[in-house]
Amino acid sequence: MEKLARKQVQALTPYLSARRIGGSGDVWLNANESPFDNTYTLEASRLNRYSECQPPQLIEAYASYAGVAPQQVLTSRGADEGIELLIRAFCEPGEDAILYCPPTYGMYAISAETIGVERKTVPLTDEWQLNLESIEPNLDAVKLVFVCSPNNPTGNLINREDIVSLLEMTKDKAIVVMDEAYIDFCPEASTVDLLSQYPNLAILRTMSKAFALAGLRCGFTLANEELIQVLLKVIAPYPVPVPVADIASAALSKEGLVRAMTQISTLNDNRAFLQTELQAIPDVTVFAGFGNYLLVRFSDGDALFKAAWDAGIILRNSPIKDCVRISIGSREECEKTLNFIKQQLAQFAA
Q1: 112 and 241 in one domain?
Q2: For residue 32, how many other CB atoms are within 10 A of its CB?
Q3: Whole-angstrom Cα distance, residue 261 to residue 137?
Q4: Whose CA is closest to 241, among 40, 41, 51, 42?
Q5: Are residues 215 and 286 in the same domain?
Q6: Could you point out which of 89, 277, 290, 299 has its C-alpha 20 to 30 Å from the C-alpha of 268?
Q7: Which of 23, 10, 96 is nearest to 316 (CA)?
Q8: In this structure, is residue 338 part of a structural domain?
């Protein structure tokens, strides 16, 4: 059957999500999930009917939360579907390209490759910022430029002035896609206010992280109405199941938002605790993080990752040499992980 698949699919290496990698343990800090297991009550009497393509209650609730008009919001099956919709809507296979700046989220490349769209890369600078001088000469045939801020896996914010420069550089040429999957942990860094100035800006959001709804698969694309209308041409007829719309709307209610803000504050406090404690360990580098995770460099990151894995503490290895990404869990999970790291590093040094 594989021989019948398209050549791009035959050659494709699938994205290794945390669940595909697997593991076995009682501390799971590898997928940037929330440790909060919130409960919801469902009224399931409408399941014999198809859902609306864009449920008005959900669209209006997220528009209010994001500070945009409902016409500027599209909801999808996670932000991952938003990535795919943008590529399918704006890129001609075999002709156009996307551009992204590694190290960054891997699904930009996977989605483009699956569809048969060229992938151009301009690595981030040593400070993990946009290399605008190298991006500009590489924009030929590029329709979409993906920028993740806070960036995954590095955790840093992309300089706002560089984002504005990129938007100016790509005017009437390409769409800048700001992936703000983790922006709820630092809302002051959002680019949503730039939508009024730049019709070539699209913003990806998700409820997987700060809203503790990774299993719900509910994401959003924010953009000006003309761009949203293009995406509505290619989205599936019924992308958001009724229970998903109901739960997401409840999470965006007044009570839901109060709970989310409280949990975000707790996770930010836990991140600060873990960062301070790890920084105090000799030969450990903790990079500034603005999401619900930290990137940490050890003298031997692979060995530390494997030792934690074997001990049932599941972290995320990184393409960056000797670095491990640690999701922010409960205080108990953070303390257990911290104590294990201290003990393990002491054993390595012995």
Answers
A1: yes
A2: 21
A3: 42
A4: 51
A5: no
A6: 299
A7: 23
A8: yes
Shared domain check, 170 and 319: no
Average pLDDT, integer, range 281-309 = 97
Domain containing residue 91: CATH number? 3.40.640.10
CA distance linking residue 328 with residue 263, whole number of Å? 12
CA atoms within 13 A on the CB side of 312: 5
Contacts of residue 62, defined as CB under 8 A and 6 or more positions apart, other chains included, come to 73, 75, 205, 220, 248, 252
Give, as one character, the DSSP assignment of residue 206: E
* Closest of 273, 260, 153, 243 to residue 208, by C-alpha: 260
pLDDT tens digit sequence for 223-250: 999 999 999 999 999 999 999 999 999 9
| Tokens at 70, concatenated | 């409902």
Q: Is the dihedral of CA 261, 267, 268, 269 positive or negative?
A: positive
Contact 154, 320 (CB under 8 A): yes
Distance CA 239, CA 244 (A): 10
User: What is the pLDDT, as a whole number, of residue 5?
Assistant: 76
Whole-angstrom Cα distance, residue 147 to residue 176? 7
Angle at 63 between CA 59 and CA 64, to 5 degrees: 120
Summarize pLDDT for 91-118 with one digit per residue, the tens.
Answer: 999 999 999 999 999 999 999 999 999 9
Evaluate the CA torsion angle 335, 336, 340, 343 in order and state its sign. positive
Does 309 lie in the same domain as 224? no
Q: pLDDT per residue over 157-200, tens digit each? A: 999 999 999 999 999 999 999 999 999 999 999 999 999 999 99
Q: Which domain holds residue 223?
A: 56-253
Under DSSP, is residue 98 helix (H, G, I), strand (E, B) or coil?
strand
